Amino acid sequence: MTALIGIRREDKNQWEARTPLTPNHVKKLKEEFDISVLVQPSPIRAFSEEEYEHAGAQVDEDLSSCPVVFAVKEIPSDFFLENKTYVFFSHTIKGQDYNMPMLKTMMQKKCTLIDYERIVDRDDRRLVFFGRFAGLAGMIDTLWSLGQRLEVLGISSPFCEIKKTLEYDDLSDAMNHLKNVGEKIKNQGAPKELSPIVVGIAGYGNVSKGAQEILEPFEPIELSPEQLLKDYDSLDQNRIYKVVFKESHLAKRKDDGGFELQQYYSHPELYEANFTKYVPYLSVLVNSIYWDERYPRLLTKDYIKTHFDSDDWKLLVIGDISIDIEGAIEFTGKATKSDCPSFVYDPKEDVMMDGLKGSGVVVMAVDNLPCELPRDASEVFSDSLYPFVEAIAKADYDVDSFDKLNLPFKVKKAVILFSGQLTPEYQYIDSYL
Known about the structure:
By secondary structure, the chain is of the alpha/beta class. It is built from 12 helices and 18 strands.
């Protein structure tokens, strides 16, 4: 059965050069499944039109002939056509205000929406994602922010040589340079004003793993949160330490009962924040947790306002990779852009100042991090998406009910809208509309 799909160009910002399917997979789709591909031209995509044409795709501005269109980020409302199927990260499942107009338009035009974020297995583990690359790029930008902040403070360090993620050719280029920086730190030692350097990472999923990967060239010593509290005074002043925090370190039972993970997810109202006892020992904090308003925050405005001027405060930089506005890090009040990744939050005045200067804590809060490593990220993402493309491309979306839609379980879980209607699992979104 011959099928036709489209690949939309990305235009959310000037750095969004990713693609959902690489030329290599476009070629395989035609050879293995007889699926033809139309690709919109793009002046910034990490893969050229020539690469796609060589793979057998047709480059065409007009995707109206494609029953199914793949993209990466949100799609402008004026792009949608009646009764078409669109596959992209919609950022709607939390009822995000800024994307409700887009969702309404899709409903009015009787579109079907498949969201990569909800392509999951039976244990609800995501199967198609850029998460590792958010961690990779986010940690590089966080370390860049650390180096620049040290320079502002008049502290010389090899950290100052680290570049923004955008300034590296690719991941390999970044890792090679970070290895050189790591060697210098190993030979020269860490800045005495910052020693020992402790990088705390909240979360242990794909984003966290990417962030930890970037630390590898620095040969960090890993400590458990319990070891950090117990052994901090005896840590080597010339080494870098890494501490990964799990849910049991972030929250505790209000009644002092034992922590139970599933109970925490099901009944977070029984729990309260427990993370701040670790904060005085951290030089850098990276936030990579899933958060919504039911859960305790990692850091509040009140906490930082009360403790920032204390003698034991050493936290210089927060890499808020998860970037829930006013969420787990309450003073992450806005997203930043790739060319200016950070701002300084002044807890006394409760203000954010772009750049690295001023009194307060530096916050790296880029909201579209994987686009900073576009070719690497697209290749890995396309690998994860490819096994599902045939089913998505060849499904019959003209059936008269969602129950009759013949998609594999893992993909059907990701159908937010079917013919303009919220599917049973996502009826709750109606309250946000």
